[in-house]
Specification:
The chain contains 16 helices and 25 strands. By secondary structure, it is of the alpha/beta class. The protein folds into two domains: about 300 residues, ANL, N-terminal domain (Rossmann fold, 3-Layer(aba) Sandwich), CATH 3.40.50; about 100 residues, ANL, C-terminal domain (GMP Synthetase, Chain A, domain 3, 2-Layer Sandwich), CATH 3.30.300.
């Protein structure tokens, strides 16, 4: 099954239903499928091997995604925030590509002219003009989407998602046509992230109206949510923090229609989700954990579990707010040690996952083992009830002597201090231990900055002496990417100074 059939099914069921709203324009499902077919016509004529997007979110992203699927060519959304040198390297890896977006930048970085480039408006106009085009039956299980990983320690890997992976995820998570005509999903994540692609596919299959915000801004988000009566939204923790900060600062917006908020993409501070539950008592919150290589979500902490944990006085139940919930029925999970042996519940190790939605495939290599298990490189553990807790990336583990130290356990202790808003623990070089603990903290604006010795004593009393940091940095803010993921490599670099 080809992912373009999701859009075809929606257009066949209710051609006049509004499927997407962006920049003041409203697209029906029939208009979207027509434009996708027109785009596929132009893509096929170009002879290119990839369809790339170098742009903010817009209707062009949806049309390019489905147009590429109809044409049987991989869709490659590119991070337009990359430095020129990094982007130029990626452009060479997908040549020749049919690229939608910043044509001037493409020409500058690609002087040999290996790509066919269109501006957003030209692409949309050409797609609409060719909307009556017909195409042969969509190909089978080819590559639907190629996403370049963030490349924090090496050159970005090209993660491949086949149609079968994405279809397995959508069919396991969404019921076709289940959305009422009044339901509207606000999508503000970047188009080059798996969360943005999953939001488009799931909303189209449910026939839920998509409210597309090209670039996140808290005031623009509040305005769009109010004016279009958004009923659901997906945010990353940093987005939610900025939205709540604006509301706490006096911003006004009618969010009475907002029934559900899903979040993911980064670590959610416990205090932030507790504040959100208090601020939106009638909104259902869901924590979604997944990876690019797993076609998005593999575990969920649902609305009832959020409220139950928020109300509970039982520390174990309340602690589940810090989890990512339980694994979806469609996937399997194991926690393994460094030798690849499965660990019992309660013990920390690396998270492995298996299922039809799991690709585990890169352009460079396959990462699945002989039994189909994918090593996520995320550390974590399962509690006695099957709730999954994350412990950061396995690459982030601090190895002090022969002892492995999870940054998360130190960070949880630090943010329990009333004067600490954010904290990050990283490994720093140590002549004695190989690595030692370094911490970077951000103090609350309304609290006095605590003394370094006070923080060391807090960690020693709550954990043990091996977790006590050798160095402490007090920062105005921690570095995050646009999806709310902490950039530990930048923090490590600060300790080199």
């Amino acid at each position: 099954m080809n992912i373009s059939l999701f859009l075809q099914m929606a257009a066949d069921a209710e051609p006049d239903r509004i499927g997407l709203v962006c920049g003041g324009r409203r697209w029906s499902y029939s208009a979207l499928i027509g434009a996708a077919r027109g785009a596929a016509h132009g893509i096929s004529k170009s002879g290119c091997q990839h369809v790339a997007l170098l742009d903010e979110g817009s209707e062009a992203a949806a049309i390019a995604l489905f147009g590429a699927a109809i044409a049987g060519i991989p869709y490659v959304p590119l991070n337009y925030r990359l430095a020129d040198a990094d982007l130029a390297a990626l452009l060479k890896r997908i040549a020749p590509a049919y690229i939608v977006g910043d044509v001037d930048r493409i020409a500058r970085l690609n002087p040999e002219g290996a790509h066919a480039a269109r501006t957003r408006m030209a692409f949309i106009a050409e797609a609409e003009a060719a909307a009556g085009s017909t195409h042969p039956e969509e190909p089978g299980d080819g590559i639907a989407v190629q996403i370049f990983t963030s490349g924090t320690t090496a050159a970005p890997k090209a993660a491949l998602l086949r149609h079968s992976n994405l279809v397995a995820y959508i069919l396991g998570a969404v019921e076709f046509g289940s959305a009422l005509p009044t339901e509207a999903a606000l999508v503000s994540v970047p188009p080059y992230h798996i969360a943005g692609i999953a939001a488009l596919l799931s909303s189209v299959y449910a026939m839920r109206k998509i409210l597309l915000l090209p670039s996140f801004d808290p005031d623009a988000w509040l305005a769009l949510a109010a004016s279009e009566r958004a009923t659901s939204a997906f945010v990353v923790p940093t987005m939610l923090a900025r939205i709540i900060a604006r509301l706490d600062a006096g911003a006004s917006a009618d969010l009475s229609a907002l029934q559900a908020v899903a979040y993911g993409g980064g670590r959610m501070p416990l205090e932030l989700i507790q504040r959100a539950l208090d601020l939106f008592p009638n909104t259902s919150f869901t924590n979604a954990y997944g990876l690019t290589e797993t076609s998005s979500t593999i575990a969920l902490l649902g609305p009832e579990e959020h409220r139950a944990a928020h109300r509970s006085k039982d520390p174990d139940v309340r602690g589940r707010l810090a989890s990512v919930g339980r694994v979806l029925p469609s996937v399997e999970i194991e926690i393994r040690d460094e030798q690849g042996r499965a660990l019992p519940r309660g013990e920390r190790g690396e998270i492995y996952v298996r299922g039809d939605q799991v690709s585990g495939e890169y352009r460079e290599r396959k990462a699945l083992d002989s039994e189909g298990w994918f090593p996520t490189r995320d550390a974590g553990w399962l509690d006695s009830e099957g709730y999954l807790f994350l412990g950061g990336r396995t690459d982030d583990v601090i190895v002090r002597g022969a002892e492995n130290i999870s940054p998360g356990e130190i960070e949880d202790v630090l943010v329990s201090h009333p004067a600490i808003a954010e904290a990050a623990a990283v490994g720093i070089p140590s002549a004695e231990w190989g690595e030692a603990v370094g911490i970077a903290v951000v103090a609350r604006s309304d609290e006095a900055v605590p003394e370094a010795d006070e923080l060391r004593a807090l960690i020693k009393n709550r954990l043990r002496s091996s977790r006590v940091p050798e160095r402490i940095l007090f920062l105005k803010a921690l570095p995050y990417n646009e999806m709310g993921k902490l950039l530990r490599r930048e923090i490590r670099n600060l300790f080199k100074n």
